[in-house]
Every structure is written in C-alpha cells, then in structure tokens.
Give the backbone structure.
Amino acid sequence: MKFKQEIANLMAKNMPIDTKELESYIEIPKDSKNGDFAFPCFRLAKELKKAPQQIANEIKDKMEIDNKVIEKVEVLGGYLNFYINKQLLTKKVLTQIENNEQYGKSKIGEGKNIVIDYSSPNIAKPFHIGHLRSTVIGGALYNIYKYLGYHTTGINHLGDYGTQFGKLIEGYKLWGKEYHIEKDPINELTKMYIRINQACKEDEKVLEQCRENFKKLEQKDEDCTKIWEKFKTLSLKEFQKVYDLLGSHFDSWNGEAFYSDKMQEVIEILEKTGKIIESQGAKIIDLEEQGIDTPCIIEKSNGSTTYATRDLAAILYRSRTYDYDKALYLTSYEQVLHFKQIFEVAKLLGMDEKYIKGLNHVPFGMVLLPTGKMSTREGNIIKLEDLLTEAIQRAKKIIEGKNPSLESKEGVAKKVGIGAVIFNDLANSRIKDEVFDWNQILNFQGETGPYIQYTYVRTKSVLEKAGYLPKIEQIKEENLLDEYSQNILKRIDSFEDVLIQVTQKDEPSILARYLIDLAKAFSSFYNENKIITEEKELQDARVYLTASVGKVLKIGANLLGMEMPDKM
Ligand code: ARG
C-alpha cells in the first residue's frame, strides 16, 4: 500500500480530477506537525476560482475517512493535512523492509531508456574539479535511475578531438623530446600546451600549422593519428586512477573522435534544410529567431568541424543506438549556451519528436577553491588524483585521533575520505556554486558524508551490543509509537518517493538531504530512547528499527556512490 495513492483515491471519489494527478500534488510536509502528507489546494483554487481554504474545507467535509488508515485530516491555510495511523505506518514499514536488501528498488522505469553523458574529461588536459562534479553527480543519477528499473547507459564523451589537438601535435613535433610525456603525461602535456599557445600568440604561422595538423588528423593522416593516439592512451591511464578511486563505471567511452565519420551526414541533413548560412567563410546556423543570440557554428572557415557538430552527430547516433527516452548531459553551467544551441539545431535533424523532448542539459555550479577558479591555459591546476589522495590522508589522521585501535585504518580512511568528497559534491542543489573547504567536508558532526557514515557505524555498534537481530514477528508496533520512532518510520516509508523525486528533477541532492534527515532522526532517537534496556519487548522493537535505519542509510549512500565502513 502507498499512502499517497490511498489519499488520492479517497479524494478522487468526490472530485472530477484524475487520481494520478491528485497524487502528484501530494507533498510530505517539512514539519511533521503539519501532518504526514499534505495536499495544497492552490492550483485547484485557480482552476475552480475559489479560495484555497474553502476548497480544502469542502474536500474535507466530503471525505469518508477510515481511521485505521488515516487518523485525522486538518485544514490549515490552503492545505489539507493528513495524519496516517501510526500503527499501520509502523507495520507497513517494518514488513516492507524485512529481509529486503534492496529496499526502495522498483520497476517504475521498466521499458524506458536513459542515456547519461557524464564525466567527459578532455584528453591531454587535467581532469579538473568540474569533471569531478560531473562524474559524481552523473554517477549518482546513473545508480538511481538503474535502481528504479530504467535501462541506463553511462557514456564518457571524452574530449579527444578538436583544434587543440592540432596544437598539441604541433608542440609535440617541435619539442616532444623535451617533455617526459610517458612519465607524467597530463602535467607535461599541459606544459607543452601552454608553450604552444604562447607560440601561437606570437606567430600566426605556428597557429596556421596547428590548424593544418587538426585538418590532417581529421583526414586520418598517419603521423598525426599516431601522436594523437599516444596522447589518448596515456591520458586515459591517468584518468583511470581517479575513476578507480571513485568507483566510477561507464558503459561507453565513445568520445568526440568517435563521431569524426558521422558528422558528414549531419552537415548534409542541415544543408538540405536550407538553414545553413555562410559567414566569414564558416558554416553557421542563425538562432536569433529562437531567442539565442549566438549562432551555432557547424563548420569553421578552414573546413574543420566543431564541438557542436560532434554533439549533433552524437545526438543522432544515440537516438538510433539507444532509442533514448531521456538523454542527460552533465556539465557546469558554463555550457548552458552550447546545449541550448545544439538542442535547437537538433530539431532540424528530422528525428522523432520524442528524441528532442528527451534532451536534457543538467547543469551544475562551479567549485571554488580558496585560490579562485582554475583554468588550463594559465596552468593554475590542482590535480584531482592529489586531491583525492589528500582526502584519504586527512581522513586517516582524523580516524587515528578518534579511534587509534581501529583495524584496517587504510581501508576505512579511503571510504571516509572519498565519501566526504563525493557527498560534498551532492549535498546542495547542484546549480549552486560550491566552496571546497577541507574542514567542512570532513567534519564528522556536520552535514557531511562522514556524518552519514558515522551514524551508520553507530547503528552497527548498537546491533553488535544487542548481539541479535529480532524477528519481525517479535515486534509489537505499540513500542514504536513515540515521536522519535515515528519520525524515523515516516522517513523510511518515503525512501522510494525520494528516489523518484531525484529522477524527476535530476537532483541527487534530494537523496543527500534525505540521508542527513534520516541520520539526524536516528541521532535524536538514539539520544532520547534507550535502545538496550531491561524491557525485552521494547528493546526488540528498537533494535529492529535501528537495523532498518542502517539498511536505508547504506542503500542510500551506496546509490550516491559512497562506500560504508562497518567501523570507524
Ligand atoms: N569535454 C567537455 C568539457 O570538458 C564536456 C563534454 C560534455 N558532453 C558533451 N556531450 N558535450 O567541457
């Protein structure tokens, strides 16, 4: 039984509105004083041209309520507030979580295809902290969609093509021997890139040479291809270190270069629409009528293709290969314009309407370091691998201080350090800029990854102390009717709903906040209620609830991409 559904059913009996629609209006109030579920009447008020409060009262008067399900209904402001029968809620939650290691998993996504384009770093450039956010947010969405039954494909759209490779190839041809590319590929290539950029600024001829190189690469010139492949292999080896630390997984590594032979078709289709115009020798599509000031460049004046053209080819390819219902792109908001442009131009490709509707840029905010923003060209870089290693070391120090006798500190420190970084990326609504502050992200008492892990470990140690896990038949609901237990039970009940909300808004922070709330609810429960007590029956119930909290915290954190230590 789903309470939202139940409430919607009750309401629908007296209303000309579809149950599903009613259900979609129902919210879970932030403050449990306002009930367990609430129905806001503001939208109906507009439709029916009546005051929300009046509507709420009318609905309430007509509703026949079974108090074994709903204890009471109240009208407050423009809301109907529903209070679920505590006994029933308790029984329902305990039964559902019993023996269910995949609590919250569902099939609602069955038959739907989701493509998630995330991480997507650039070859021969540092894997920067923005790519970390993309990797972490995209990874969490990937896990959650999958858990809800969607057929999910994760794509690492590597930046392995484009004019910058013409530059890198030129740098390599000129000074390749001076750099230790095999030993420290990204750093050395970055240095070379800075140098060649400088040379281009000083000498137009060098720039011309670079452009020529990229053209040759596009024409599959053997020499240029060989150098490019070397850059790619070495870079991927470096990136893999970060992916290993984060536990990232991709189903496809088709990057920009993969589309090199698929762009011609796109250009031909676009040519046929008559929308391509020549501007200073380049082929562009004007988007002013669509409210976009900057035109989309399809082909540069020297005949080279662009980032945009490759993305257009990718859209076409993904529609055919994955038949996607939703295609998500995880990048920082710096690329909002780019995606607006290509989604607009994609309408000209003659694809089914479904594929246009499914395109979704999922932008996120910047990560600000105390030293400001980072840029490759000026060479102001933090290496991500170093950052993750530092997180682990810092976590280890804290653990050594708190729990010197802990076994396998290394393994725990890795889970805590990486978990802290991951959670920090997900804790706030993604569009917000985030400041990366070590003390904050590793604070065990703050709203952090380590706090969630710490709470989980606490549930484990309670279970260890109890020394047994009670059977569900032993649990009497009467022992869990207090405020603190109920707060936990209500949260556990809404877990699947939270996951669904994440996919509706492509916002993993909803799950991150939820886990913080659940952990806090458990902390209050732990502080206010004696779990291990003389009263066996009460203890059984509380131990059982504790185990349930641990289970949900673990499933939730794993979905975000965090690992849980058993001790810390
Ligand atoms: N490589 C790009 C960057 O680092 C991100 C690619 C995002 N995906 C895409 N299909 N454009 O900025």
